[in-house]
Amino acid sequence: MAERISADDAGKRRLQAVTPPDTPGKDDSESASGQAASSPKRERLTLVIDQLPHAAYMVNHKFEVTWFNEQARLEIPGLLAEMPPRTEDRSIFRLLLEEGDDANSNAAAMLRLNIALAKERMNLSAVVQPLRGISTSRVQMLEQLYEESEPVRASVVVELPLLLEVDGHLQDYAAYSTYFREGILIVIAPREQDSDELRQLLSRRDMVIRTLLSKRLPVLTDLVVLVADLQESVKICSELPPDEYFELVNKIWATAGDIFRRYYGTYGKHVGDGMVYYFFPQPDSNYIYNAAVCAMDLKMAMARLSKEWQLRKNWLNELYLNTGLNEGQEWLGTFQTATSIEFVVLGETINHTSRLSDMARFGQVWATKNFMSKLPPEHRDKVQFGIERVGANGQRMMVQSSYSRVGNLVDVETGRYVKLQDIAGLAVTEIRSIIGSG
Which of 174, 165, 161, 111 is nearest to 2 (CA)? Predict the structure, then answer.
């Protein structure tokens, strides 16, 4: 790629002067011979993800850059030292089109590569959507590349040929693409150079994704936050033997985890028997509707689990996950501990969602007016929501498609609802059901 062998990069270049592996079948006895002494023994290269001597970057499933190394910044057109704060401005297609020269064959090659990787899941409109402000001619070039490209079928590791120009000459490279739930890691390396070591590294999926997530770039992003807490967990804990209580909580987490994965929920953190998950914009589905359906599926799954434990324990306890939903734009980053990596959102969106979960009772799903207003009409029409009101004669009735301030629903001055004072003016509604869910 351009500037690959400049004098400033000499230090980096020596990392790429990889020696071949030891010849199979030879042992240390040869080192005593004069012939072996005349040439020092070469060591096999060991690669780690954050010290790769090759260009590497990671994109989410909307092909927005979430991480890249120094080699990628130097060698790939469009990957800047300072990434834009907003997710849509980090589209790999936008970055390549903004910085790449029209005559830059490497930029065109990288566009073809990323389009082929994206085409299986992203339609053309999703690829083009974040390209506002890009010249019409460049957008048309991308559209033509999209039509000409064959989609790459997702797999654990995919190796693709890539021709790149180095010092005026085309050279053979390979793009190694590794698929994770969180996105796709792409490594660009000269063909056959370090290929065995690269494949070995990329096969260590848990280690690779842990390293990548710990280095994920903070980003300002649209998202939905879902917070769910187990009602009366202290009472349930006191009534069960310790081993059964842990079994129950682990069963809840496992059941919930399957549902969250189905709707592209991203693990935030678990606090005791509560959970936080995030939903981000997706290329092939609406993330706000995903969160709403996920919450209702979770509610129905908890009802089934509750019946199982009532039969097992012959008790009258009901298991409820009280849920809050909110949508906003916040900074997303990661915190790394000795044992885990957690996605962390900063801002009022998560604080308000947590308070809604505190307000919910008996498995209710409360959502903010902002959350509901962001749903496209075709999805909002499927959601049955509203506020339960008390008539003059004491009769309770559900007013469909309505909202209320939190302070008009509960007394935030006394009792367990005092903690809701900071959201007393927040307009909310209860989601009762969703047509077609479950």
Answer: 165
> What is the Cα–Cα distance from 126 to 381, expressed in whole angstroms?
24
As for how many domains the chain has, the answer is 2
Query: End-to-end distance of the chain based on CA atoms, in angstroms?
Result: 51
The reported pTM is 0.69
Residue type, 380: R
Same-domain pairing of 240 and 342 = yes
- Of the listed ranges 35-44, 95-104, 268-277, 300-309, the least confidently predicted one is 35-44
Domain presence at residue 321:
yes
Helix, strand and coil in the chain, % to nearest 5: 40, 25, 30
CA nearest to 186, candidates 81, 52, 82:
52
Residue of 337, 226, 247, 362 lying closest to 292 (CA atoms): 226
- Asked, for residue 118, whether it belongs to a domain, the answer is yes
DSSP class of residue 86? B
Banded model confidence at residue 29, pLDDT cuts 50, 70, 90: very low
Cβ-proximal residues to 387 (8 Å cutoff; 6+ apart), any chain: 398, 399, 402, 403, 404, 409, 429, 430
CB-based contacts of 1: which residues, under 8 Å, 6+ apart? 55, 75, 76, 106, 164, 165, 166
Q: How many CB atoms lie within 10 A of CB 291?
A: 27
What Rg, from alpha-carbon coordinates, does the chain have?
27
Residue 94 lies in a domain: yes
CA pair distance 403, 230, nearest whole angstrom: 25
- Which residues does 437 contact at the CB level (< 8 Å), separation at least 6? 293, 296, 297
Given this model, what pLDDT does residue 122 score? 92
Which distant-in-sequence residues (6+ apart) come within 8 Å of 59 by Cβ? 65, 66, 92, 114, 183, 184, 186
Identify the helix (H) or strand (E) that includes residue 96.
Answer: helix 92-99
The burial of 338, by beta-carbon neighbours within 10 Å (0-12 exposed, 13-18 middle, 19 or more buried), is given as exposed
- Domain range for 331: 220-434
